[in-house]
Amino acid sequence: MGIYSRLLLLTLLLGLFVQAEETFINTKGLNLAHITHSNKYCKSTKGTNILCQKKELTYLDYEDAQLPDFLSSVKEHIAPIVDKYFATNLKKNTLKNIQDLDEDIAGQWYNERDIKLFSKTPHTYTLSDASSGYTGGAHGFYNLELDNYDIITKEKLTLPDLFLKDYNITLHQIAEEHYKQLRGLKPTQSLTDDNWFDNIFLLADNFAITKKGLYFFYNQYEVQPYASGNIEFMLPYSKIHHLVDPKGALSFVIKSM
């Protein structure tokens, strides 16, 4: 398959993996902007072959004078990512790839990363960190990481921070039942009928706290083959409010019920 055919196929496949680019927040009035940094380096390999590598980083920016209180810690979380981007030597990386692969490589390689404000609730906000690219091989990649933060403490939140003690088994049971309903599966039907590798329901650690519910996102290869794309589903608070810690970051859920 030629390089242009591969890039066309990559573009089509990545279309399967960008559902979560739609965020769960109204950014009107927040005065948010995004900064993009891009760098590219090309080097001849064997014969007339050329390898070009490109890296790009897009991230949140805003006017400090108009900064809402809940965004006061965003720069602290993004700064290490920006520093790492500028610390990476693309030329050195490209030359190393050519040496390691015996110079038998060519084409357009790229790696793009986009950090957005994904959602906000009365007590939390969520950042999405999406990476996509192509570094040789049969297909490209897309990966989304969701990180939730407490607005007051600025600490990262995980599922145990949100629920009462011994919540885990019940939450998994409710989530599996809801997931099967959404996917048109019968309660006793195997998850392998939905292209899962095994008939064992795994609740993704990758999730976002939204005003409507917990949004779960599974990256490619986690529970299904690459060709199946990513999985995403919303677990509404109406089904899990009885598990919520009334003193935790989801206390607003109990008040709304």
TrEMBL record:
Organism: uncultured Sulfurovum sp
Domain DUF3298: 161-238
Cited Pfam families: DUF3298
Top-level taxon: Bacteria
Name recorded for this polypeptide: DUF3298 domain-containing protein
